[in-house]
Amino acid sequence: MKKKAQIRKKMKLALKTFDFSDRQRQTQAIIDQFLISDIYQQAQTIAIFMPMSFEFDVTRLLNDTSKRIVIPKTLPQRKMIFTDYDEDALFLTPFGVRESKSDFAVIPDLIIVPGLAWTEDGYRVGYGGGYYDRYLADFTGQTASFVYDFQILPTIERNKFDIPVRHIFKV
Ligand SMILES: Nc1nc2c(c(=O)[nH]1)N(C=O)[C@@H](CNc1ccc(C(=O)N[C@@H](CCC(=O)O)C(=O)O)cc1)CN2
Ligand SMILES: Nc1ncnc2c1ncn2[C@@H]1O[C@H](COP(=O)(O)OP(=O)(O)OP(=O)(O)O)[C@@H](O)[C@H]1O
Fold it and tell me: Could you list the residue ranges that cross the membrane (predicted)?
């Protein structure tokens, strides 16, 4: 079984070299599936993330005006809140992601969880900050991830904090 650090390195490279048209095709198919799903239709407030250039391209959802869209904001002690998405009130963190200037925390009813690799049953490797596992520890709403085909692995080592996402959207 591959160690998490090894998986991170390998997946970052695979994402950065992912063929442009295959990426576009998979992105569109996955978002189409999501938009007709019950979990999308039943959610009022959806947490998306501000993607780095190589991450899953969620731009289409950020601009969805039929839902309240919130995005992650990291705080000291590896804590995280979600704040309203306002494209005119963002700043760039040292990690390279955009976050809201606002500190007003909103609890979403659906969280789209970012990451680098997943198993079919929702176990995940992220960037190693533990932000999502900490948040999900006392979150009772829905969770889902969008996954390109090569990001699915047969097994991932687990620690006691790992919380699987409840829905995987893939091609
Ligand atoms: N687009 C996007 N936003 C996201 C996440 C994500 O995966 N994708 N996150 C998912 O969790 C959170 C940020 N995750 C982070 C994970 C690790 C480190 C980290 O290791 N930082 C180093 C210094 C920065 C560096 O590595 O260059 C450190 O704190 O020492 C920071 C943020 C919230 N926002
Ligand atoms: N609920 C929690 N309480 C305390 N520590 C936690 C919790 N969740 C995760 N951690 C710690 O955070 C660190 C990172 O966890 P892990 O390697 O699973 O990150 P990840 O899932 O890749 O990152 P992320 O959740 O940010 O996407 C680990 O040291 C882990 O023990």
Answer: none
* Domain 4-54+66-170 in this protein, CATH class: alpha beta
Which of 79, 161, 165 to probe ligand 2 with, by most ligand atoms within 8 A of CB? Answer: 161
Asked whether 144 and 168 are in contact (CB, 8 A), the reply is yes
* Closest alpha carbon to 143 in 107, 106, 108, 110: 110
pLDDT digits (tens, 9 = 90+) for 136-153: 999 999 999 999 999 999
CA 87 to chain CA centroid, Å, is: 18
Ligand found nearest the CA of 164 = 2
ipTM entry: 0.93
Q: Whose CA is nearest to atom 14 of ligand 2?
A: 130
